[in-house]
Specification:
By secondary structure, the chain is mainly beta. 1% of the residues lie in helices and 51% in strands. The strands form eleven sheets. Strands 20, 22, 23, 25, 26 and 27 form a six-stranded mixed sheet that branches. Strands 36, 38, 39, 41, 46 and 48 form a six-stranded antiparallel sheet that branches. Strand 14 and strand 15 form a beta hairpin.
Amino acid sequence: MSLPGPLCLTVADEVDGGCIASGQTRTGCIDPPGDSDAYVFYAYAGQAAVVKMARTDPNAKLNPRLEVFDPVGKRIAYADAGGWQGGYIRINGLKLRQTGLYTVVGSGCGTGTGAYGLSLQLTYGPFASQADKEGGLLTSGEVAVGNIDPGGDLDGYGFYAVEGQGVVVQVASRGTSRFLGTLEVYDPTGTRVDAVDDCWWEYGHFRLDSIQTKMSGIYTIVLGGCGSSTGECWISVSQSPPIRPEDLCPWNPVPGNGQAVPYGIRTLAWQPVSGATGYDAYLAAGPCSPLEPIAENVPVASVNVGIITAQGVYFWQVVAHRPEGDVKGPVWWFGVEPCEGCRLDLSAVGNGTVSADPPGPTYPCGQQVQVVATPEAGYRLVRWQGSAVDAGKVVIVGLEVVVTVDGNYTLEAVCEPEQAVLQVLYDFTVDNNPGWVMDGQWEFGRPLGQGGQQYGNPDPSRGRTGQNVIGVNLAGDYDAKPSGPYCVVAGPFDLSTAKGVRLRYFRWLNTDEPAYVRSAVEVSVQGMGGRAQWVPIWEHSQRSPIMDKSWVLEDLDLGLADGRKDVYIRWLYQVNPSAYPYSGWNIDDIQLVGYVGGQ
């Protein structure tokens, strides 16, 4: 990321120094001669640090000096560019032996002054920062963009590897100018395992291709420019054999790494680690604060942190407990946006009005608001809906509700004509074969309670009601070879006199995450032939597997089928490369309900 270099400030305006995060580049100015700037960062015993300082003004006479002091004030590293007048200096692979606040002091040799960039990268991360977002986690085969700017900038990347893998890291110039850079790789203990640079040959591309991992964990890549040089590049990691890090290490955080989230965030989540028996979670309010435990040995891949109300940048880390040993994940970060009040947007669906006491739509966050629905003559309130209901912020008492407004929410009062009657339009208990079109491994019959030996949970041993279901391979897992999509297609359904139609059914579903297996429910209101246009009404979109171990009611809006007489519904799955076998779909007790009659 391109950061503007500072103008040299007068002594009275001096603002250089302060807190620096791993993955961040700070800019400052050494002026007048003898000036020094101090930066602090929090680190843990066993981490390694890389620090670089370079002048950003080629006409300046600054030759940097770097010093690092441990938490008790002892100097543990020193380097300067005074003897060779290079305009930059770097401290590589500094092993940190204590936990606490470290101090980096940047200054100039002799009487030289000028603007500079100073960057810090710690092993295990974070690998980027709010002000310098290049860097992050890489998986095998993934290509990222690096941007070394200003001089002194470092970009950090992390990847998870297991013992015995071969690793290749490649860098190549991006754009018309050649990128001349340096590359280092550190293992999970902070030991540098390999390094290369393009400072002498100036090819504009370089690689490390002889790394053999000797332990499992997060490896750290540190990318920089030669001397004070800057530029853009491509960077990639290839691992042999390739692995899926999300199965072995805490991965795919929610909020996403580096994401800005609104005031009021409550939950942190991550991809479940295969075989994990529990998780510890840690949170820090800022880069110069320690990671404090917020959860210990929780059985699920999420933790409730209460309501985070303070604006700022938060750092967090997860440790997974597995029978063969603990697995420490990378350090992630997210930003909490400032709270300028919380908003409740009200509306009525159908004929009616909605009012609030006190009136809004903006309230102090945490305010309780009374909301009243008033249907017009001939109409009645049938339900409340919206994000406030979904988030559990609503207590309903007839036509009135009380809403706790601790975030931004919507609330709708749904009013229907009094004459309209909710009816079950079609009902399939699946005790008998409905004769629907099926392909792939879809079949009708009694499930055998098998599958799920490696991933997820097994099929049920019978239907929710009765013996039979419609499902995918009722004797085990679906075939994990790439294929499909495969569907069971129900219909046709005549809904020409109905409105407010909904699809209700019970599912028992175990499937891989959506990048590897697509699972969806779709509707066509134009038949099922060549003119059919299938529209999803539900699709697995979360970056984690679905692992049902009991029957789950699904209630889906089928409003686009209101008043149509040639409606078809299909459940589908499609297997993509690298999928894992799960026990797949089981569906039972399928109903179409809707309102018939009325205005």
